[in-house]
UniProtKB/TrEMBL annotation:
Belongs to the peptidase M3B family. This is Oligopeptidase F. It holds the Pfam family Peptidase_M3. Keywords: Hydrolase, Metal-binding, Metalloprotease, Protease, Zinc. Has oligopeptidase activity and degrades a variety of small bioactive peptides. Its EC number is 3.4.24.-. The keyword Cell inner membrane does not apply. Binds 1 zinc ion. Its cofactor is Zn(2+). It is an enzyme of class 3 (hydrolase). InterPro entries: OligopepF_N_dom, OligoPept_F_C, Pept_M3A_M3B, Pept_M3A_M3B_dom, Peptidase_M3B. Gene3D superfamilies: Oligoendopeptidase f, C-terminal domain (1.10.1370.20), Oligopeptidase f, N-terminal domain (1.20.140.70), putative peptidase helix hairpin domain like (1.10.287.830). Transmembrane segments: none annotated.
Length: 602
């Protein structure tokens, strides 16, 4: 398991061409430290401006720009500290950097926290007057409008103070969940594929469920839920309390319900959520067909919940080196035009990517950057197809960041979570299409088709299932109906049965699945995974048939408008059903292909 202690190279042993070049941010650590000191010195200057917003348009503009300037410098310093820390999390020196950057970030946050409440208290007429008097303010119009749109949900200063003071108390249920789930629960030992006894954990559960050996995945599944069954009442109480705070706050802030409160912040119409749930339900027969196909390929009489994650196709024997993968990425993305691929080459050539694993390096992969840094990528490269998909995914994020940064002013450069996964998943879709067209080997083809179908299942179907559950628990609480483990288990078991269809065996354990999902402690968040994936599926098809121009406009838009409007620029209206139908159409087409291929291969 802990292979890094045996053979992973040390950070300093990695050839520099495979590491990211952080001197593009600060020439050296000294410059970073100097910048931290200067930022700290600027905080008072921003704090002292409290009360300035009502003192005329020039004072207003000066304060706004001083705040943005400070935040911009802080973000840059933070990115540097964060990347330095992640490249070797065991390095004490850089642990110190990130700790200091975090502390300073909090100080900056506190120093600028007066701005929004003060803006919300500024009379509308006065603010309108500012825009007439000072045309320079027009550059910030949408930014200010986004904040002032919350005006009717803002309470009196006294009430706001009371709520702000209780923020810790409101997050207690989530904290209880975290401690219970991550440290108090003890899982038993189970046997792995080599018949070794290993300690079951959140970390290895997913891998055990993917085991080709059925007894291994069955044991992991039953033992895991054995534990959750014992604690169902505590989990239910903490989740119900969490949901209750959402409903309470939404009501006090004059929203029709908690979901509206969560979506309104990004100006997402509730119809987007409702349409997603309706369309997914309408297309559940496709998921049922996929479950039957699994049953057929795995040659089992009953499909249990623990049979849904094991690969149904052999992992391709061919390897994908980093060098070959760079070529494939450029070819697959060539449909986005020369400017786009020139920027991808820039990422490869200018060392924006930290490629290989070393001792202490943060696991997984991500794209991270801000207005004044390159859009860096962290990878833990393995020579396989999964790594190729990860590379093109993160490149999608980085090219989105790059396009928004070069087209927008700083204050509109950051795109919202609602659109973030669209750029990365569109790239994955383009890669899938490219690989399907350029692969002869039927086994590799089957693997790629299944990779797509599994991704679709896990993102569109599963996240919408979660979204339905999340909506239901909020409704139960709002209607003052009981929300104990008994009700949650029953609802969840039915929901699961409806999603996976007639071929799924009713494992009683699955009723407890809601207990272990941390996302239920977010706030109407998961539906965005599903909408983002579907939009990307529709966009990739549009790029391949109509060309990339609309899509490139979307990439450049940053947060210059509300997310729904920005996606419209790419030609996808997420308040309509068309984009979802297009995504399900592609799922069906690829399901057909895999069914045919499997018949031919068997
Ligand atoms: Zn992503």
């Amino acid at each position: 398991m802990k292979k890094e202690s045996i053979k992973l190279p040390l950070r300093e042993e990695i050839p520099s061409k495979l590491t990211w070049d952080l001197t593009l941010i600060f020439k050296n650590d000294k410059e970073f430290e100097k910048e931290l000191e200067e930022i700290e010195g600027q905080i008072a200057n921003v704090e002292n401006r409290q009360g300035s917003l009502s003192k005329g348009s020039t004072a207003f503009l000066d304060s706004l720009e001083a705040i943005l300037q400070l935040e911009r410098r802080m973000e840059k310093a933070f990115v540097y500290a964060n990347l330095k820390n992640d490249q070797d999390t065991g390095n004490k020196y850089y642990q110190g950097f990130i700790a200091r950057a975090r502390q300073l970030y909090a100080k900056v946050g506190a120093g600028v926290s007066w701005f929004e409440p003060e803006l919300l208290e500024l009379p509308i007429e006065k603010l309108k007057g500012y825009f007439n008097q000072n045309t320079e303010l027009l550059a910030y119009k949408h930014l200010i409008a986004k904040i002032t749109a919350q005006r009717k949900h803002f309470l009196s200063a006294k009430e706001e103070e009371l709520l702000a003071g209780a923020a810790d108390i409101f997050s207690t249920p989530e904290n209880i969940f975290g401690v219970l789930n991550n440290s108090d629960l003890k899982f038993p030992e189970v046997r792995d594929a080599k018949n070794n006894l290993i300690q079951l954990s959140h970390g290895n559960y997913g891998r055990l469920l993917e085991s080709p050996q059925r007894s291994v995945r069955r044991a992991a599944f039953t033992e895991m839920y054995q534990v959750y069954q014992q604690f169902q009442n505590t989990f239910a109480l903490s989740l119900a309390a969490h949901v209750h705070t959402h409903n309470y706050l939404a009501q006090k802030r004059c929203y029709p319900d908690a979901r509206s409160a969560a979506l309104t912040r990004n100006n997402i119409p509730v119809s987007v959520y409702k349409t997603l749930v309706e369309q997914v339900n309408h297309h559940l027969p496709l998921l049922h067909r996929y479950v039957s196909l699994r049953k057929k390929i795995l040659k089992i009489n009953e499909v249990h919940m623990y049979d849904l994650y094991t690969p149904v196709t052999k992992i391709p024997a061919r390897t994908y080196s980093y060098k070959d993968s760079q070529e494939i990425v450029l070819k697959a993305l060539s449909v986005l035009g020369n400017d786009y691929t020139a920027r991808v080459k820039e990422a490869f050539e200018n060392r924006w990517i930290d490629v290989v694993e070393n001792k202490g390096k943060r696991s997984g992969a991500y794209s991270s950057g801000m207005y004044d840094t390159a859009p860096y990528i962290l990878l833990n490269w393995q020579n396989n197809l999964e790594s190729l998909f990860t590379l093109i995914h993160e490149m999608g994020h980085s090219m989105h960041t790059y396009a928004s940064n070069t087209s927008q002013d700083y204050h509109y450069s950051d795109y919202s979570i609602f659109v973030a996964e669209i750029a990365s998943t569109t790239n994955e879709n383009l890669l899938t299409q490219y690989l399907l067209e350029h692969t002869e080997d039927p086994h590799v083809k089957a693997y790629i088709l299944n990779h797509y179908l599994d991704g679709f299942k896990g993102t569109i179907f599963r996240q919408t299932q979660f979204a339905e559950f999340e909506q239901w628990i909020h409704e139960q609480d709002a209607e003052q109906k009981p929300l104990t483990a008994k009700e949650m288990n029953a609802f969840y078991a039915d929901l699961n049965k409806r999603y996976y269809g007639p071929d799924i065996f009713n494992d009683s354990e699955i009723a407890y699945e809601w207990e272990r999902i941390p996302h239920f402690y977010y706030n109407f968040y998961v539906y965005q995974y599903a909408t983002g994936f579907a939009a990307a599926s529709a966009l990739a098809q549009k790029i391949l048939t109509e060309g990339p121009n609309d899509y490139l406009n979307f990439l450049s838009a940053g947060s210059s408008d509300f997310p729904i409007e920005i996606v419209k620029k790419a030609g996808v209206d997420m308040t309509e059903t068309t984009y979802l139908e297009s995504a399900f159409g592609l799922f069906e087409k690829r399901l057909d292909e895999l069914e045919k291929l499997i018949t031919k291969l068997s």
